[in-house]
Design brief:
Helices cover about 80% and strands about 0% of the residues. With about 450 residues, it is an all-alpha fold. It has one domain: Up-down Bundle (Growth Hormone, Chain: A). Helix 1 (about 5-55) runs antiparallel to helix 5, helix 7 runs antiparallel to helix 13 (about 285-315) and helix 12 (about 250-280) runs antiparallel to helix 13 (about 285-315). The relative contact order is 0.15.
Length: about 450
């Protein structure tokens, strides 16, 4: 081979490596940015359910009834998330992860924008809550397919030695999205209540369109994941992923559902229900609670990649179990600290709950679930397991917590027990789950 030819070959190899590295970095960015936008939209609704929707869309002579109806609209979308997971994971396992992620982001973004335009109950009567719930269900469909695609975009671009770290990047979407939502509401909360209820609450829903276009631009520029490309080239594509998932991986689905409990319900109580509980029952200022949640999510943003990296050394199960046991132990102290009615202790409790205990659970969940399913049904498996778990123990959590408060004379003890039950169920599931840290995807 001539020197010129040899030089050309070397240059091509270097160029390929550079393109591959750029492609990987863009895929990681796409998984995190898109996921952050989706969760910003999703949690924005959860926060507004406590502050706005119970007054403008579900008016009632009894404030508790209005709040429960508002939380019911929040929880309904969780029951449609498994359907979204089935629909979009079918596309993801047959056609590709990239197309799925563009569809889910478009659906979620469109629904969020339209919520910002909705007239309230006084303007159009019963149609106001009907349209709100319809758009909320569209959000649920979108997020049902979004999570699995985002996780696999990162995990399937990784190698065995850094899979936990890569898989933790899309999981940053939850705290980043929540932080964006909290910051938006904190700024709007400075408005007089009349202006906030009249038009202020609509602004973050409408302005989220800018973030959606940025997310779509990033995702449109990514390539398919290496694992999916290999499966497609070898013909290892399932004709009916949902059928194959339940035929060959039904045990893995059940295990992921159980393991999901400790991640989903507690977070909605720590980050969403606390707004209504701390302000309505304990007398905290809304700004104080929002600041505590914001600080906790900042800590989580730091902790998640660190815990993902740790899982590459000690295993996913070990990290997940540590967080699960921490939640079981901290359930009672958490509520005790809230009852001290101190802004400092409220912040400490929220930071420990979300930033220290929940962060390791969130960091490794996506990677851990991905490692128990084969490539041809991986998106379907993790999406269905994740979304069923979220439906059973996630969206219902604020509603259940509120019902427990009212049934037991405003006592927080049943809610603490509820959190502990979620932890115990997940702990049992974890014992049945294999550690796939050393397998090839």
């Amino acid at each position: 081979m001539s020197q010129a030819r040899a030089t050309e070959v070397v240059q091509k190899e270097i160029s390929t490596k550079e393109v591959s590295k750029k492609g990987t970095n863009r895929a990681l960015l796409a998984s995190m940015v898109g996921s952050s936008i989706e969760w910003f939209d999703f949690f924005l609704y959860g926060s507004m359910a406590s502050l706005v929707f119970n007054k403008l869309f579900f008016p009632s002579h009894d404030p508790v009834v209005g709040l429960m109806l508002s939380y019911l609209s929040f929880g309904l979308s969780f029951f449609i998330r498994p359907l979204g997971g089935v629909i979009f994971s079918h596309i993801g396992d047959k056609i590709g992860r990239k197309k799925t992620l563009i569809l889910t982001l478009s659906l979620m973004g469109g629904a969020t924008f339209l919520i910002g335009l909705l007239p309230n109950y006084n303007a159009i009567g019963i149609w106001a809550p009907i349209l709100l719930i319809t758009l909320r269900l569209c959000q649920g469909l979108g997020i049902g397919g979004e999570w699995g695609g985002s996780v696999l975009l990162a995990v399937e671009y990784s190698k065995k030695g850094n899979r936990g770290f890569y898989g933790s990047i899309p999981q940053l979407g939850v705290p980043v999205g929540m932080l964006l939502g909290v910051m938006s509401i904190s700024l709007l909360n400075k408005l007089p209540e009349g202006q906030f209820l009249a038009w202020g609450w609509r602004l973050p829903f409408l302005l989220s369109t800018i973030l959606i276009f940025i997310g779509l631009w990033i995702r449109n520029g990514i390539d398919e994941t290496p694992s999916f490309k290999k499966a497609k080239e070898s013909g290892n594509i399932s004709k009916l992923p949902i059928v194959d998932t339940f035929r060959y991986h039904w045990k893995a689905v059940l295990i992921t559902v159980g393991a999901k409990f400790v991640e989903t319900g507690p977070y909605y109580i720590f980050a969403t229900f606390i707004i209504a509980y701390a302000t309505g029952y304990l007398g905290y200022e809304t700004s104080t609670v929002l600041n505590a949640v914001a600080i906790a999510n900042l800590v989580t943003i730091i902790m998640v990649p660190l815990m993902g990296k740790l899982s590459d050394k000690v295993g996913r199960k070990a990290v997940y179990m540590a967080g699960t046991i921490g939640l079981i132990v901290f359930a009672f102290p958490y509520y005790y600290l809230l009852t001290l009615k101190s802004a400092l202790w409220l912040t400490v409790a929220t930071v420990i709950a979300i930033g220290i205990i929940w962060a390791p659970i969130e960091a490794v969940m996506g990677t851990m679930f991905s490692e128990v399913f084969s490539t041809n049904v991986r998106m379907t498996g993790i999406s269905v397991g994740n979304q069923i778990g979220a439906a059973v123990f996630g969206g219902t959590a604020p509603l259940v917590a509120l019902a427990l408060l009212n049934a037991f004379n405003d006592s927080w003890v049943p809610i603490a027990l509820y959190l502990m039950i979620a932890g115990v169920i997940s702990l049992v599931s974890l014992f049945a789950m294999r550690d796939g840290r050393n397998i090839d995807l």
